[in-house]
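Q: Joint fold for the lines below.
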Amino acid sequence: MNQFWEQTILEPLRELGRQAVTSLSSLVGMLVLILLGLVVGWLAKEVIYRVLRVLRFDRLCDRLGLGTEIERLGITRSCSYLAGQVVQGIIVLTALLAGLTAMRTQWTQNLVERFFLYLPHFLAAVLILIVGALVSRFLGRSALIAAVNAGMPSARLLAGLVRFFVMTLAVVAALDELGIGRTTIIVAFAIMFGGLVTAAAIAFGLGAKELAHDLLNAQFRPPSRDAEKDTIQHL
Amino acid sequence: MAEEILTSQVREQVGALGAADIVVGIPSYNNARTISHVVRAANAGLLKYFPDRRALIVNSDGGSKDRTREAVEAAKLEARELLLVQYPLQPVHRLSTPYHGVPGKGSAFRTIFRIAELVGARACVVLDADLRSIAPEWLDLLLRPVLEHDFDYVAPYYKRHKYDGTITNSIVYPLTRALYGRRIRQPIGGDFGLSGRFLQRLLTRDVWTTDVARYGIDIWMTTIAIAENFRTCQVHLGAKIHDAKDPGSDLSAMMAQVVGSVFGLMETYENVWRNVFGSLPAPLFGFPFEVGLEPVSIDLPRMLAAFSQGCRDLRPVYQQVIPAPLLKELTDCASLPAETFVIREEIWAAAVYEFALAYHRRTITREHLLRSLTPLYLGWVASFARQTEPENPAQVEERIERLCLVYEQLKPPLLNRWSAGKG
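A: Joint structure:
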């Protein structure tokens, strides 16, 4: 009778108790780690924000055009603050993952492992998008200024197209890096790009025959005397 | 030890020639049509005005492909030594032809100055190879202040059509004058006289391979002369007529090169110009005579259209560079009818200072900044041309003088903001 009690009632209860204590300690460990992450993250954010402000990081971002791009996304915070927030996010995320690891269950281990495998791709995609935004802005502005100086009436449209194409390329590359709909996106992009180029070529050939003629003439034939309205020497 | 830019062969040639009092340098690149005239005029000037001085004429050519060297050889001189040297044209010179002067004009000048230094020249004169209006008297005018009056830098003073040299008249001259306090009317004229000690100073500088030497050698020399207190004067040379430039040349690239050089020098000589207020005239020698000038036609509607489009399409760029009230005043001008179109001097000078500040602070990419100035500049030229249409040269000069005074008046606020912008 005693053995029965021992094996069927008390032992499972002890086991349950042991597991509860283990789980509880893991849970407490996780909570402590997360709490620590939140505190350290907040501190890091504040320190980074203040240091970057002293180092005039916002001005650098404005100069690079990053500030304007961020503003365009509807984010009103300064680049220094955002950089602090990014660091805070990374620290909190790391603490969360450490906490999950502390749980010592199979699915949390798998989750953490998969996260770390995916992280480089994610970071690469973010980098591609940032570089893409900067390059599209630079090339867009180059095209805008060149087109205005050349007196092209559709200068803004041209600049917008340049920005759009560069950004599209960057998004496609970023999605490809993330492995999201890889084939579909590349095929869609190729179809869209090829279609647009073909459409533009046909439109230019048919609709702007005169313009094409004039452009080629201007490019390869010396200007006639009548065309030289300005004989001004600027220097 | 400074880098030797002359080949051993050229050094031997120079050594064989011996000492010379005067060196006449003519940098060239594809100037076959005009260079023999320039060489002959230089030779005639030396014979007539400096018969007792030993002189050397140096043609520093950047690898012309139009028989420029043959044209120089054809102008064989009797009493003068003629030295033909080639300066190395760097890949960057080939890729990016300057719109002001020959490619690698800095290298050409450096070669000429080094030769002048080797022969111990007391005076050196540099002449553009595309000149059509040069006369032998130019040699006397450019050299005598150096040889007999102890000047170090002789700048040209040309008679020009009121629509000629508009970048000089609207930006380079007023800005240089307001900054450094010397009234050198043609700071990027192209034909200069230099003393031996001044060219030795120039040779010690390490800017010969930079953009300043590449595109802004003239304004660089003028600025050094003023900023480093060399004795500077001007001489009346009459009209400057030179071979027509390529009509398709890109104005915005020219703006970027010339104005970029002036803005770049503002950073180099900040410690000099921040202590200068007002301006003093530079001594002017020679006889001011009236000359017939070639007519200049100007396409006002095109310029006004460029200005309006710039104000409309480049607004996002200008918003980063020009404060809102000033930008509003500028864009308000765009809505004026052509008959009453005017940009006031205060607005123009303030806009140029804002661009200088933005260049200093690197608010946006410098190339973008400088090129985006072109539509505003065309607006200013249109305004200037419309207002000066009925005016004679003296009245036009008075108008330029007023603009210069505005630049000088607006300098103190620029100074405060320049320092505040340092970081």
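Q: Anything notable?
A: DSSP finds 20 helices and ten strands in chain B. The beta strands of chain B are 22-28, 55-61, 81-86, 123-126, 153-159, 182-183, 192-195, 232-239, 280-281, 284-285.
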